Amino acid sequence: MLIDRLFARVFLPILLAALLGLNFKTAPVQAASAAAIRAYDNIDVTSKDFVGKRLQAAEFSDAHLDRADFTRAQMQGVVFDNVTLTDADFKDADLTDGMAYRSDFSKANFENTVLTDAILLKSTFTGAIAKNADFSGAALDKEQIIELCKTAAGVNPVTKADTRESLGCR
Question: Which InterPro entries does its entry note (predicted)?
Fold first, then answer.
């Protein structure tokens, strides 16, 4: 499990950046203690309430969070690894610099959500709502960009980014 987390948090972003030719802003490196990172592994929770919670750098792995409510949650640097988030609500949440790998966001609500510089690969967004969301600088699989463009509209109220432009919709 530790190797998987290390790979997901350190090596995967570096490898993806190199493959995609992305330029990440450099920031001072900070050591994180195990107590500073909240891990939610192998949980099965329906209708979980995370409204307005501070979940920066939280790690969710192999979890079932169908219909979870993350409205207004501060989730910068969050990690979702193999998580089911069907019908989850991320309205007004901030997932800047977040990472999702092999996660299911089908029918999730991303209205007014900030997902700038997030890495969202091998994840599904079938039927997700992308109204007023900001995906600027986010890495997504082409098929999922096409899926999100089906509902993409508006301008993010926080960043003022046009949703369709931030996704690269045609």
Answer: 5peptide_repeat, At2g44920-like
What is the spatial distance between Cα 144 and Cα 72, in angstroms, rounded to a whole number?
A: 24
Please say if the pLDDT value at position 30 is more than 50: no
Strand runs (DSSP E) across 30-132, as ranges?
Answer: 39-41, 59-61, 79-81, 99-101, 119-121
34, exposed or middle or buried, with CB in 10 Å at 0-12, 13-18, 19+? exposed
* Range from 31-45, 64-78, 109-123, 141-155 carrying the lowest mean pLDDT: 31-45
- Torsion angle in degrees (nearest 10) through CA of 82, 11, 140, 42: 10
What is the amino acid identity at position 99? Answer: M
Asked if 112 and 133 touch (Cβ cutoff 8 Å), the reply is yes
How far apart are the C-alpha atoms of 39 and 89, rounded to whole Å? Answer: 20
Instruction: Please choose, from the candidates 116, 98, 135, the residue with its C-alpha nearest in 3D space to the C-alpha of residue 9.
Output: 98
pTM, rounded to two decimals:
0.76
